[in-house]
Amino acid sequence: MISEKLREVKDNIEAAKAKRSFDKAQEVLLIAVTKNHDIYAMREAIDAGVTDIGENRIQEAKEKFETLDRDVTWHLIGHLQTNKAKQAVKIFDIIHSVDSLHLAEAINNAAANIGKIQKVLVQVNLAKEASKSGIYAEDMEELLYKVDEMPNLQLMGLMCIAPNYENVEDCRPLFAKMYEIYNRVKEMNFRTANIIYLSMGMTHDYQIAVEEGSNMVRVGTGIFGPRQY
User: Which of 85, 103, 111, 145 is 20–30 Å from 134 (CA)?
Assistant: First the structure.
């Protein structure tokens, strides 16, 4: 069942790319979100072709990381508390949720302590939802430049979570605006940043996100079915 769902998601991504008026050949990276799904489901997905795993919580990720026995890229897609930065840099290849200078400094220091260059994305709260993390777009550039100056971080792009609108089409203007911001950020004069990822789109809205320019989507329920609590 997981392999069938995975194929369906990949087909949907290709269909969404075909609807674009731009960059139809761009690769879209699929992150399988494994929050609340067990190690057996994860292995089944990886054996069916998943290369990238997304987790929300440090403790759950740590337990899986130690027992998964598969070679994958690990993404932290949930909010990260500064006191968990030390654990995060030991597990995750890419941290999507940098949203403050304080957190960036904590990740940079933790990465320095283990001799690692930690790849990160800056999370933008474009809709200014109080319930979501992320820096506001008008404050973003200052944070981007400061992250770029940190010797043990490499800035790789931006992440955004759209509001959970009743009508999913309402996400479209926000995703389109985020793609504009991403293209502007790519033109900024950074020191070491390599702006290649725009992480936006989840199970309910990833097809619209891809149509509007996302090149990294985070899909859990669409691959694994409802979460097991």
Answer: 111
